[in-house]
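Minutes, project check-in

Agenda point 3 was the complex the collaborators sent over. CS summarized: three entities, 1134 residues total, and the question is how they sit relative to each other. Sequences were read into the notes so everyone works from the same version.
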Amino acid sequence: MTTPPVLEQENPPPPAPIAQPQEDGFGVWILRVLSALVVPIVVIVFFFAFGFLKDENANKAVQVLVAVVVGIGGVWAMYWGMDRLVAMLPNRAEASVRPFVFVGPALAILSFYLVYPAVNTTIISFKDARSANWVGFDNYARVFTESEYLISMRNSVIWVLVVPFFAVAIGLAFATMADKMSSRAESVSKSLIFLPMAISFVGASVVWTFVYAFRPEGFGEQIGILNAIWTNLGNDPIFWLSQQPWNNLMLMVILVWLQTGFSMVILSSAIKGVPDVLLEAARIDGATEWYAFWKVVFPSIFSTVVVVWTTVLITVWKVFDIVWVMTGGQNGTQVVAQQMVQEFFSNRNNGVGAALAVLLFIAVVPILILNVRRFQAEEAVR
Amino acid sequence: MSKVTTAPGVRQTGRLPIYLTVGLITALWSVPTVGLLINSFREPRTIRGSGWWTVFGSLFDSTAWTLGNYSRVLDEGFGNAFANTLAVSIPSVVIPITIAAFAAYAFAWMNFPGRNLLFAGVVGLMVVPLQMALIPILRIYTNIGVTGTYPAVWLAHAGFGLPLAVYLLRNYMGSLPSSIIESASIDGADHFSIFRRLIIPLSVPVLASFSIFQFLWVWNDYLVALVFLGIEPQSRVLTVELADLAGRGEGALNLLPAAAFVTMVLPLAVFFGLQRFFVRGMTAGSVKG
Amino acid sequence: MFVPKEEALKKTKWIAVLAVLSIIVAACGGDGDTTTTAGAAGGDGDTVAADFTLFGAPTGVEGDALAGFVDVYNTETGSTIQYTGSDDFESQLRIRVDGGDPPAMAFTPQPAAICEFADQGALVSLETMGFDIAAMEADHSKYWMDLGVCSDGEHYGIPWFPNFKSIVFYHVPTFEEKGYEIPETWDDMIALSQQIVDDGMTPWCFGFESGGGTGWPGTDWIEDILVRQSGSDTYAKWVNHEIPFNDPAVVSAFDKFGELFFGDGFVLGGAENVVGINFNDSPGPLFNDPTPGCLMLKQGSFISNVFKDQPDYEDGEESEIKTFAFPSIDGNVGAMGGGDTLIVFDGAPENVQVVKDWISPDWQCTLASASAGGVGKYGGHGVEGVERLPGNKNVDPNCYETESGKAFATSVTAALASNSFVFDASDLMVTAVGSGTFWTAIIDWSQGASSQDVTDAVESTWP
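CS then shared the predicted structure for the full assembly.
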């Protein structure tokens, strides 16, 4: 679904923020490709040419230092060098090659680390379990007919509706309210919301064990806080993670807990950026805080809300580890990404796993269109 | 750090409910972590025997507490793992952010064929599951003989972190007022100097913010380090050590909490250190208007 | 105290993220097109002291015991072998094989992995190394040897040491006080359970919860019942899908288990709640004071590792818990378990000599326990509390220090010799079932679904 970046041949350039020449010869394309590749290739060659960078036993501080110096200084120097080289080109060629000096290294690295695997996955999705023979659309047919995959699709859709909404809504509400607190209270409370992001995943799974743990009659005191509260209210303990369909919500809570910190941090800084004069004006007009938020603050940060929502949505769409570790997809908790990992790696059914991965790519296309439209609209007014 | 300063009268109304609500959410968010923290100081037997909240009944009973979990965790070769993790993390943050900044500038302020399509493609790459990428990459690494080297891990992290970096940076840079760039252009500055002299200084907040997210991700990464760096004791990173503890059934409940807090220390320090950048704004608007 | 660390690992891995990984890399080996021919080095010259890395799963005290064993061997032979253990063993081994840098030797708990590596051309066969297959089949176990026969018909796996799962832990003081007899047959065990209920206690503890691996502890029951009720031939056919998963023999094994599992008052906490009890917590009630919450628990011997972490455990109390062999059904006994199989990537002559030594009774005695019971020619491995069962029927049971070690060793060697030892089916079946739908079946069944329905469901998902 992603186009092989640097190789694209024909396309009318879009309306330009800064007007530039339109017509490209074949030679210009060669230059573009070359200019895109030089920086990553030199960096990679440098890294691998020096034996001590590879040596796990060498002094780590020196390795890191060299990597940082090359990573910042060297890369900057090379971008600069390429820029100077391009500047020597005839005017028209210069203008059409230069963007590729800037964007090219990123595209080259992405092509290797993500585009190539994505293409590879797409090909595998038309092959059998061991990727030996072509099977056409069989894997897709299976995915769309067998109930376990259909359930995982239903669950995934619920995940992307629920989790980003709560992660963004709570993050936004929290950021807005924290903004009105004393700066120390704000700093402390924001840090605590951020905290889950710093916990490694293995740690997080233990955290939630102590929330959902279940001890039936005869196995001693409850060690999960949810059942402790529940039994204190006079109920029998419940094995929460087997209660369909609520167990799905229990798992979603974990991801909301993890992702709210991300959305809160970014939204909070966006709110800080809303110019005071606008708020003042609204207040002088007698607007309530509520009205001021919706009429002034929210429109100003709308683009950030979309960015955060998109980022969280994609994270949710790819979520598999929470499900994998907590329930293994049992009891109706399977989601597409977890099924993909399971098929591909556990069941060794490459074909079906890859087909599920391709579905994951395709499903975000509308989100991409939305984002590009929004950026275009933004450019039109700036 | 500009706080929204308003007429005191307006600010005072409804402040208590705000404190209460924020306090409640914060408390809810902290409960699971507090549980983990308390359990990390308890004996395995008491962890299994009673809920962590029961410690509040006997807070000063010294027999209820132990530092044993921490001392066992720190005995497990965490020093070396700590150094390894730093050696992996720092370049893995610096490299992608440099490359992404150039690309984001081009996407925001330069014109070239296929720009929107390429940008959509980059954003779309965020959805490529890491798990699908590991194997093809590993095969190539193996063929060219770089498996198990630091640069192999750095570049892999750079590749996997780029889409989000480009997306966030482009969103920010694109919202800078065009007047700045136009006036610089008129003064004869080329793209490279505009980028270096104007855009980068203006983007420090977003660069710092992305750095911490990328740092958190790399610091807590298990998969990439394990696959591309390997498991030999001298090359293990913290998360691999941690997973090693988790694999021992008997240690899972007591050693893991302690280990989790040990690994959290540095990310939290970085977060506190960089907090002023978060406050100043990561995305659109802080310069606008 | 007892062996099968790998068992615990293999399952708890689901708890840790590693699972994911192990798998990931499993796929790397998968397509098998990457090549590593670390094949038959078969060099000439004198047999010299060996110098290589042995790679395996055990870490912690289990790993220390192996390292101790290797140290003893190094001292005796002037070798410089190094043991490296990893909880991510399976994935790491695949990475190294794919990376063209395999260890000279490894031992794997998963027989299915043997032929994957062999078919990839990475392993050296026993035939190539000049082993006497017939003699090995006599001393070890033809059944186990056969698990390492790959597509070219040659043998690639060397049985090293087994684990034992056909055991039941029980609370000795209560049994003695009440005069309960150790059950010899399934029917005795049901009668005993009823007796315990009538005496106002609860006979059984269960715990099926294991995060993403929930359900696996139940599969051991089905396997132990099936191999006794229908014989090891049926068991082998079932594992290889030569009979369907929902064969009447299997359905009947579920039903047989149901006699006990759904017995009125038999299960502490109620049968329907068993899926919510973590397997590491399941021994807890054995230590309740003053009377134990339950009297019996069937679990692999590794579970004794967590005895001391149970809330009501008091120092020394583990001596109150002993084991008896899983009873016979219709007069048939069986031994179900797992085991570690040596595989050789580098067949240099000195390495072949190492293998020959390590499977010999003398060296297996060193591997057996800390002191080798004082009878070992070379002493023991030196790590207290770790006892490894013999993969060679000629190992002297006196190599074990503990009574239970001797007893297990005797049963295992007998089972190996009579070829009645069978491998845990979930290690042998295709992963989609063995580490997937079989577990789902146990979960659903424990919640009340019928034996027929759950086995039908598994059959329909067999790839």
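Noted in discussion: The CA atoms of residues 173 and 264 of chain A lie 8 Å apart.
Follow-up: revisit at the next meeting once the mutant set is ready.
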